[in-house]
Amino acid sequence: MSEKVKVSREVAEALDKLSKDDEWTQNYNLIKHAKQFSGNGICMKANWSDEFKILNTLQPITYAKCLILGYEIKGVNA
């Protein structure tokens, strides 16, 4: 079993605010997020703004892992 992804408190708070109601929305957000990165993982254009802008720091693979495996705040014992 894989472990949850460790993220900063700010990233966790932004992810918590995103809609998780349906798979379509999660797929849309992941594709929209990944489109802004180059093949070598450099964010070419900020995708998120306002309260979600911290998500621009997440590599697409990390964002996908957060959706699939879940996430927890770094340094906080569950």
Description:
The protein is mainly alpha-helical and 78 residues long. The protein has one domain. It contains 3 helices and 2 strands, in the order E-H-H-H-E. A two-stranded parallel ribbon has the order 1-2. Helix 2 runs antiparallel to helix 3. The radius of gyration is 12 Å and the shape is globular. The model has no long low-confidence stretch (mean pLDDT 91).
Strand content of the residues, in percent?
A: 5-15%
Sequence of secondary-structure elements: EHHHE
- Given the structure, what is the number of helices? 3
Average pLDDT reading: 91
Unreliable stretches (pLDDT < 50, length at least 5) are: none
- Range of helix content: 25-40%
Query: How far apart are the termini?
Result: 17 Å
Radius of gyration: 12 Å
* SS-derived structural category: mainly alpha
What is the number of independent domains?
A: 1
The largest sheet has its strands arranged as 1-2
What's the overall geometry?
Answer: globular
> How many β strands by DSSP?
2
**Biggest β-sheet, characterized?**
2 strands, parallel
